[in-house]
Amino acid sequence: MQGLQAAKEKASGLFANKPLLFKNAQYENFHVEQKGYDQMYDGEDLETPPSPDRPPPRQIDKYVRPECPCLSARYTVALLACFGFSIMFGMRCNMSMAKLKMVGKHNESAGEHTETPFNWTVEVESSIDSSYFAGYLITQVPGGFFASMYPANKIFGAAIVASCLFNMAIPGAMSIGPAAVVMLKVAQGFVEGVTYPSCHGIWRVWAPPLERSRLATLAFCGTYAGIVIGMPLSGLLTDFISWQTPFYFYGVSGVIWYFAWLWLVFEKPSKHPSISGKELTYIEQSLGTAAQAAMPGFWNTPWKAFATSPPVYAIIVANFCRTWNFCLLVIFQSAYFSTRFNMKITESGFVGAIPHLIMTSLVPIGGMMADYLRKNNIMSTTNVRKLFNCGGFGLEAFFFVLTAYADNKYVATIELTLGVACSGFAISGYNVNHLDIAPRYASILMGLSNGIGTIAGFIVPIVIDYMTQDKENLEKAITEWRAVFLVGATVHFIGITFYAIFASGELQPWAEPTPPYESPMKSLDNETTFTQEPSAPLKGTDAPAYGAIAAPPPRPPAPQEHVPNNPFVSGAFYQAEPVQPPAQEYQEPSEDGTY
């Protein structure tokens, strides 16, 4: 024992006197490249595993992470897209509200008289109202291709900020003349025409299939929130400051939004530097390989399939009908209340915002209901789309008929509010249907349907201005506005019938790309020997030779006998002689060790 104790003391002294004994020991160092936010931490971040496509953090990301508290990355995209649409559609209210003061009229019943800095005729007003949609129509289909060839998030952001800059230039253009205003409105429509197709391009890579309705409707409800805020806000700014103020206010708001968009939104989940590993895996596994497929060009887009597909026509017709009534409300709702019930500008702005306020809350609720019905297999996707689209259109048309015969402003407000609010359910129908029938071509189909639907936006101002020319005679005005709402109800009933018959929520056979390695070959289903009929004897010429693999030699005929537990082949595929001797029962070895 004393010897053992002495050895311990000796060892302790040895290491105590040489504390740096292993300082110069050589070890092999393994270097693992870190990307994204892993570059900023020494330890491994289990929630954010490195991804080959994930870029290193930008300079600003080193100080503030690009994420919204309490929001996942995909819902941050949806929320900011909602704000973007809100600004875009709020700008559309600037002209309709400011025009009541810019080309003001004397309203004897309300005791209101506004100055008329611009003496515009009905034809000039119609030209300015329609000019936006002329530009909007041009870029719909090209916008779908741009969104498939370039990052859709950048196209969406650039379009809105450019429109905001044009919006701030409109007051100056008015001092030049109506032609300058028309040119700016055409430019606004031109850049905004790519927003809807590019938004579908964003959801192609960001939205899991069972969350498409929820995310898309959350983004699109910004269109109605923009009207809710835009109408009363434009009226207040016009009444209490000047008619130029709304244009400047929304222009500056759009520039501020654009910086937030650049900071928080990325092309796809794998390029987001701070997305959680759990969310990244969930999105990519939900989408599968379809989202990673190469996007189509102009010449390999199935245009013939588009032109012969009834579900595509159903979406186009629904878009046209919805655009007709949407433009009717956005452009002429304030004029209806002002002319029909002698409301002041501010009052008509607030009253006109009420229907869209209710609809803004119902649009995301409708999206969640649609996803719930699909996720729990209560209804098929086709029936869900038809239910929400036809139900929303039908209720709005019904309340339009009631509004046409309303004699009281409070009754008219209630009826119009209920009708417009119920139409919010239709957004979970036709407006996300592109992602159901052809997710790969969703942005192109959105541009196509929205482009044709925009023709309604081009026609509506001309038609309504022509139908409501007599604004001074109240009796004639009542008859004119009644006809306006009855026409709107009729348009919706046509859309209901067409969509109910031809719409579909199933993936179309032309919607999936053909893998490159299959294109030069015939289908393997008709060539491979393993899918031939059991009764057909195998011939040497039946086996195709691919590459360096030659066809097998002919086999001798064999009797047609049934092979147990194999419904695909018969005894003709096998040689008569066994490959190995049949199994024998266990035998005891003989004395010499043999069996």
UniProtKB/TrEMBL annotation:
GO cellular component, one term: synaptic vesicle membrane
Subcellular localization: Membrane
Domain Major facilitator superfamily (MFS) profile: 70-507
A molecular-function term among this protein's GO annotations: L-glutamate transmembrane transporter activity
Major localization listed first in the record, in broad terms: membrane
Region (Disordered): 41-60, 527-595
Origin superkingdom: Eukaryota
GO biological process: one example: neurotransmitter loading into synaptic vesicle
Pfam families found in the cross-reference section: MFS_1 (PF07690)
Segments traversing the membrane: 72-91, 215-235, 247-266, 312-336, 348-366, 387-406, 412-432, 444-464, 484-502
Keywords for the protein's UniProt record, in alphabetical order: Membrane, Transmembrane, Transmembrane helix
InterPro entries: MFS, MFS_dom, MFS_Na/Anion_cotransporter, MFS_trans_sf
Topology in the lipid bilayer: Multi-pass membrane protein
UniProt-recorded name of the protein: Vesicular glutamate transporter 1
Lineage: Eukaryota, Metazoa, Ecdysozoa, Arthropoda, Hexapoda
